[in-house]
């Protein structure tokens, strides 16, 4: 119920579209109901189809139950299924195409093998056979021809993460293709096998240590980080298990989001303290923690850092198009000129990244890996993230209208003087 609420709230399905299921240890399948408002499901609405075929619930099971059953029969390792009609993935389904997960190392790792299932009538056994056959080929993320998408996982959390990442991949590719056409670029940049190997090198792991009792400032920063991370997820600026957000506590100590935890459900106690002594005992910081640390060490004025994957700005990172933010005064005053960081620079020796961002260069595109933003406060960093994504979207939309007119050097000089920009 909570997962369907989240999918509906994120506008990844409609009131009548999509269905979810979980297979329990008894072989019973718990599935969302047919013809019930997806935006107002309650626990009592969920239907149980027993292993013997009997049905327990207030409503009939989803009309797509046959393909859920077929997938579970074909893949005993799958314990949860998500089916929906998110716009970007429907676009691929009606073009008889699949998103290439080699766009990002995260998408390649999470979505795994992507498949395409030929069309069959919704609710039919033929559709179940078509989808199940594709899943037996080792696919966990499947585009349904002229229909939508189905993903499977070993739990509902795993299936949702895969579905969300798949949809993020599809949306980014749609925006990137628009950039390629607008600027007549050679194409979208995809990662090679050696690039994926490079992404695994995040520097030496942190040793654990027991920090002193948190100060009032630390407790407030933990709470504030959680609030802005959740806001970022709900605004689709962050996805549930990717990206990281941090805040400096003192000279060589900072708080950062953990690795492997759902960002929207973070609690203050989940945030990880990192210092020169190592990481807080019993917690694992974001895999980008070394990069955060390197930026803080080099730039004492930076108080907060966010690594994120906002869809439109990320589309610029996978193409050779320049994100010129000299569009409106707010964009330039908040972002300055956006830097571009070569792929993988922040892996291994994270100190190399610190030369691309600073107080006077707070925003950068990470090639095929989203964006990095610095700020004087958590609010400042988050505000810049919002402005960056809005600016990127305005640039793409502007190209659909006509030639974009950016502010001339004289206006930029005036802004720099008026707002004391370095």
Automatic annotation (TrEMBL):
Enzyme Commission no: 4.1.2.17
Q: Name the SUPFAM superfamilies on file.
A: AraD/HMP-PK domain-like (SSF53639)
Give one Pfam family, short name only: Aldolase_II
**Top-level taxonomy:** Bacteria, Pseudomonadati, Planctomycetota, Planctomycetia, Pirellulales
The coding gene here is fucA_1
Which InterPro entries would you find in this protein's record?
A: Aldolase_class_II_sugar_metab, Aldolase_II/adducin_N, Aldolase_II/adducin_N_sf
Q: Which UniProt keywords apply?
A: Lyase, Metal-binding
Keyword field contains Metal-binding: yes
Give the signal peptide as a residue range, or say none if absent. none
This one is known as L-fuculose phosphate aldolase
Any idea where the Class II aldolase/adducin N-terminal domain is?
2-174, 223-396
* Recorded GO CC terms: cytosol
Swiss-Prot/TrEMBL GO biological process terms: pentose catabolic process
Top EC class of this enzyme = lyase
Keyword hit for Metal-binding: yes
| GO MF | L-fuculose-phosphate aldolase activity; metal ion binding
